[in-house]
Amino acid sequence: PAVRRPDMAIARQVLCLSAFLSLPHARAEPIRYSVAEEGESGSVVANVAEDAGLAPAQLSARRARLASEDGRQHFRLDRGTGRLVVAERLDREELCGQSATCTLPFELLLANPLQFFRVEVAVEDINDHSPAFPEEQVTFKILETSNPGSRFPLEGARDLDVGSNSIQAYSIAPRNEYFSVSFGSRSEGDKYVELVLEKPLDREEEAEVGFSLIAVDGGSPPRSGTTQIRIVVLDVNDNAPVFTQKLYVGQVLENAAEGSVVLSVVATDRDAGPNGEVSYQFSQAVGQSHSSFAIDAVTGEIRLTKPLDFEAAENHELSVRATDGGGLSAMCKVLVEVVDVNDNAPEVVVSSFSSPLPENALPGTVVALFTVRDRDAGANGKISCALEDQLLFSLRPAYKNYYELVTVSTLDREETARYTLAVTAADAGSPPLTTTQTFTVDISDVNDNVPVFNQTSYTMYVRENNVPTVLVGAVSASDADEGPNAKVTYSLAPAHPAERPPCSCISVNSENGQVFVLRPLDYEQVRQIEVLVSASDAGTPPLSANVTVRLVVVDENDNAPLVLYPSQDSSPASSELVPKSSEAGYLVTKVVAVDADSGQNSWLSYHLLRATDPGLFAVGAQSGEVRLRRPVTERDAVKQKLVVLVRDNGQPPLSATAALSALLLNDFSDVLPDDLLIISLVFVSVLFLASMAAFIARKVCKSKELKGGHVLYGTGNLQSGLADAAAAGTLPHAYCYEISLTTGSGNSEFKFLKPILPSLPPQHSGMEGRLSPPPKLKKQRKLRLPQSGNGMFQLCFSLF
């Protein structure tokens, strides 16, 4: 509801009252309704328009509204229907408290003409509150001597509800035999609640009594409230202390430290407070036994004041008195037994011990003999021996308390050179005492390992022409033995016992295995040397091992190229025939050279060093082919001299020269009148003889193939012959030509198709140099001869 100023509300109330009193049409009896509390807002109370005899339309037309004396609007009027509805939640206890009735009066006011209707709404109570005690727990202290029938008042519970919804009864839960509850009203109307003692209390039987007091109202369903009642029974000194035992027996070890607790005596007093507080003290001494003990007056603990001796007294008897605060007392006896302890450890006495032990000792070899003893008796004197974690040794009982330490398997010094054996002797005491005897067994070496090289084979390198006694490497071998058995010496050994001694050009240092070459080596004579090096130890008997040492001779550039063709020792020098009609690129000849070195030292290159006309010829740097650089002209000299430089690829490079000459001719007739006559005669003779021999052989073997225009090929194995001759140093320089004889003209022609000169393959056992094979000729050489028939020949000749 809206907030209104107090003076305006009072003025409005006075105005309404005066108007009501002066209104002739006001009803004398109010309209009464009832509604249950806690109803929801908007709940319908009744149709007040119908009960007032008004039509709903009049309510709006006459501006009907509700007015109350306190200004609070608990209800509102629905003008459309004339219904009276709850405006807010109604709480009867808040509005009317503990009043037996709760009525809310207000007026229904209408205007034009002014008219009032008195309305009263009774708020009916519902059971929405539970009984509640002022305290959750109430404590009473009652003497155990209180008489039955004694009453102990309680403050009752409160219930905000009224009527039958208020508190109707009290009860105790759980029920007990000591108390009941009394509930009622006195003459002046006050209600009371009391606890009534039904049976005498005994604090010693039950020091406290607890239960719940429950208040129940009359609602439906009923509600209840609970408080806890705690009854503390007050003591009266009517009980003397009582020990839990008449005789206490305790045991204490003879080595127990000062202050150790022997045992505790316990006396209980059923009384409480000072009457139940018990103190302890020794009553009397029996043989002054108490001088070794002290008792705690509060806890009853008996402690040692000095160490005990089992041999002096095996037990002690004590008397203890317990007294409560009221003077009542009781007594008990305490018997303390002294327990002997295992205070002597076993002893190990070694009779014999062998160390070092050879590694070839047989299983069962005795290493040590010892005995064990313990000065304790009984179980404390029983001894057992054990060897810790050893697989190669074991203990073997001998006689009584004697034991032998023996080997159980073969030993290997190289695997383990020293064994630390721990023999533990333990008695059967509790806890057991132990003694550990350590045996350190050193294993002596036996020559049972051969030297082992660090490589399966060795490869060492030395350059040819080396200086004498040059160091080229070292071999190394180790021996797993020690001392003299591990001292390794080196020597050269023959491959087989029956063979002759090893090469005298190699020596091995006997101490450190260094390998020396004693004299210079020549790569062209020997490429590698293999020797056996033996490593022997100094054991008895000595053991040895062999390893292969391969000495590889590295080539040096110490051989100049050797010109094979054209031969440089012939007199006069050979001449090459070159037709003047030849074009540029015409193959004149090929310089062939070899180098006895290997690798890049044998790689040859060819260069034109000098020439009659340097611009006419060119030399292939890799092939050695001499070709025309340009076509031959009439101005060129007929006889051309050339010097070709052959150089290897070594550092520094070595070289050789090849001198050759060439004749520039129109045909063969041009050369006959000159100084070439002798050469021509020789050439023609050799050519004729070779041609006839080849022709006859060819005709006999394959007569059917001898027809015009066919070609005959030689079948000789020139390559193998060249290789053999080169190895012997007498390589012939052969040139072969295919000769074609044709018919139909006054002259026949020799066609020099190609020189047949195979290249020399590299020899793995000799020089590693390589020769470039001469390429095929692109131009044909033609030599006109007088016609002598048809056919074709293969003409070969050699220059030495």
TrEMBL record:
Q: What SUPFAM superfamilies does its record include?
A: Cadherin-like
Provide the transmembrane region boundaries: 676-697
Keyword set for this entry? Calcium, Cell adhesion, Cell membrane, Glycoprotein, Membrane, Repeat, Signal, Transmembrane, Transmembrane helix
Using the record's annotation, list all stretches that form the Cadherin domain: 27-133, 134-243, 244-348, 349-453, 454-563, 578-675
Main location class: membrane
Under the heading CDD domains, the entry gives:
Cadherin_repeat (cd11304)
Q: How does it sit in the membrane?
A: Single-pass type I membrane protein
InterPro entries hit by this protein: Cadherin-like_dom (IPR002126), Cadherin-like_sf (IPR015919), Cadherin_C (IPR032455), Cadherin_CS (IPR020894), Cadherin_N (IPR013164), Protocadherin/Cadherin-CA (IPR050174)
* Gene3D superfamilies per UniProt: Cadherins (2.60.40.60)
Q: Name one GO molecular function term.
A: calcium ion binding
Please provide, in alphabetical order, the Gene Ontology terms of the cellular component aspect for this entry. plasma membrane
One record GO biological process: homophilic cell adhesion via plasma membrane adhesion molecules
Check the record and name the Pfam families matching this protein.
Cadherin (PF00028), Cadherin_2 (PF08266), Cadherin_C_2 (PF16492)
Places the protein is found: Cell membrane
Signal sequence region: 1-28
Q: What does this protein do?
A: Potential calcium-dependent cell-adhesion protein. May be involved in the establishment and maintenance of specific neuronal connections in the brain.
Instruction: Report what the protein is called.
Output: Cadherin domain-containing protein
Q: What does the organism's lineage look like at the top?
A: Eukaryota, Metazoa, Chordata, Craniata, Vertebrata
